[in-house]
Amino acid sequence: MKTEQVVRQEKQAKIMLSCAALYCLFGMHLYLPHLFGIGLQLPFNIIGWFFVGLMTAVGLWHWQRRLLTSRFWLGALLASSLLCLPFFYPDHNTVAGHALPRMLGLLGGLLFYLALQQCRFNGKGRRYLLYCLLAAVSIEIMLGLAQFFLLEPGNRFGYNTEVRSPYGIFQHRNVMSSFIATGMVLAIHLWLNEVKSPRRLFIAKSCWFAAVLGSGAMLVVLLQSRAGQLGLLVGLLLLQPLIWQTLIKTRSKRLLACLALIPLGVLLGVGGLDMFEMSKRSLAIYTEADGRLDIYRHGLRMWLDQPWLGYGYGSFEHAFYQTYADWRELTPGAPALFTEMGHPHNEFLLWGIEGGIVPLVGLVLLSLLVLRLLYRVPFAQALAWVGVLSPIFVHSQTEFPFYHSLPHWFMTLLLVYVIDAEYGQRCLLPMPPRWSRWPVLAWPLGVMLFMATGLYSSQQLTRYAQDEYRTPAELKAVVNPLIWYDRSAFYRRHLQLKQALLSQDQAGLRDYGRWARHFILHTPRAGIYYNASLALWAAGEYDEAERLLAEGRRLYPNVMLLRPASMARSRKRLSHLEPSLDPTELNSLIPLYDNLRPAIGGAY
């Protein structure tokens, strides 16, 4: 007879599995209008964090009993502490708050992982979790194929049918590609480890796995993503020993036919590229590193220059362009880089540049902890699990999928949890004190509330940004401006700038200049330099305006907005402004920088 605790744990596991299925089948794929970007600027990530908060609350609801965890989680807690330590360096992190979302995302992942462990899934339940991930990939494949083959110009999703890059819900080809590649490798792994089941059910699963492989291979080709294709290739190579063992043991013709769908899908993808008029990437992309090599070289120079403490959390974008300008001045012929790059396109480089050696040790420790889980696993099986994790890992070393897409972070946590539950060493923590229950539960409940209000606020800000006749009342009505803190602040200050220019309010113009000088310490956009220079010039602060303009030109020598002719034209028009001019008409006269672009990088 089952004890009350076992019954409660089984019920908890079913609720958690239902939440995971609801997220993977529906929540992950909901589309809402947005302004593009990364992180919480994309509505599907806000919805995802709401579900993560819900699942964390479900798993940690019975906090007062002894908590089941693993040696891996305790090691991950130590490694995460190393990642967080530079956040608290004194007199070093003037803009550390800009990195706070990254720290909170890490904390949220740790608590979600601990919540999964409290549900104590059995082998069947863990397999269902993997099926949920594969279902999410399957839906994204269908969405991607519909975008490529079915959507017409003027569709409500804003999908560009001329370019025809099927990015699914992710808004970017590389993020979509690594997600699909992970699903393809996972499908093969599930097939190779498929438990005995009724014949009809097994055939249905086989057809599902085969469809993922064939259509996924075609989509990865259509996406023309090097990161996704490289990750898929690495994953498939690491699966080869287990595939070979399975074929020798079972001589399965169905498995061979399924694997043959991968090259067939590749051929169909190549045919699709030739059949449709679209933006084709040159074959040179497979032999050229575009801007990444320059980024990596300078990122390594930055880390070697300050290897111990780094430049401070949240300061990458500012430090990168400042140090690159210094290096370019000493290196004749060095090219200018693109703008709006807030990440070095390599996860290890980001933490090393901002935090120095300590977070790098934490990342290495996390990687070793994952490999240690597979230490006693048969070699072919261990390689197969590494292969499943490879597409996202490869992508994280060439871009930043975890900041662009919560589904990538969610998928990684679930995959590592399944490996840990299968092969890791479990342990029980002491019973936590009574007072700790509500502070712990406040986290997931607070996340759910923040994301619910944030989703509505993101739609308010999207409508505001897309409205040609913006009013201050619309901006004041935003329920949760913290969801897009930088962009909300930018919009508020932009209204202040326009009103101060029209009324010749010198105090307001100087205040805008002070805000801009602080803002460029973490987000040094060329447009901010342009706006601030105009504001200070209109306020009579000519020397400061020229100094700020010279700094902007030094960082961004190729930006047309900062060229002497452009500035002279804007200043001339500024001197003839009429106070009766409507603020909405100001941009037609003077091209102010009025839309803060997200730092998504230029090497995509």
Overall helicity: 55-70%
Order of helices and strands: HHEHHHHHHHHHHHHHHEHHHHHHHH
Separate helix tally? 24
Strand content of the residues, in percent? under 5%
Major sheet size, sense and barrel closure: 2 strands, antiparallel
β-strand number:
2
Sheet with the most strands: spatial strand order: 1-2
Write down the overall mean pLDDT: 90
Q: Which outline best applies?
A: globular
Rg to the nearest angstrom? Answer: 26 Å
In the predicted model, the low-confidence regions spanning at least 5 consecutive residues are none
- Judged by helices, strands and strand pairing, the structural class is mainly alpha
Kindly, what is the distance between the CA atoms of the first and last residues, rounded to a whole number of angstroms?
Answer: 58 Å
Chain-wise SSE layout:
Layout lengths: L3 H22 L17 H17 L8 E3 H14 L15 H20 L3 H27 L23 H20 L6 H25 L2 H25 L2 H23 L16 H14 L10 H15 L16 H9 L1 H17 L5 H18 L4 H4 L1 H18 L2 E3 L8 H30 L5 H5 L8 H19 L2 H14 L6 H13 L3 H14 L8 H11 L11 H4 L15
Antiparallel strand pairs: 1-2
Helix pairs in contact: 1-2, 1-5, 2-4, 2-17, 3-4, 3-13, 4-16, 5-6, 5-7, 5-16, 6-7, 6-8, 6-14, 7-9, 8-14, 10-12, 12-13, 14-16, 19-20, 20-21, 21-22, 21-23
Question: What is the structure about, briefly put?
Answer:
The chain has 604 residues and is mainly alpha-helical. It is built from 24 helices and two strands.
Task: Describe it.
This protein is mostly helical. 66% of the residues lie in helices and 1% in strands. Strands 1-2 form a two-stranded antiparallel sheet. Helix 2 runs antiparallel to helix 17 and helix 19 packs antiparallel against helix 20. The protein starts with a helix and ends in a 15-residue tail after the last helix. The model has no long low-confidence stretch (mean pLDDT 90).
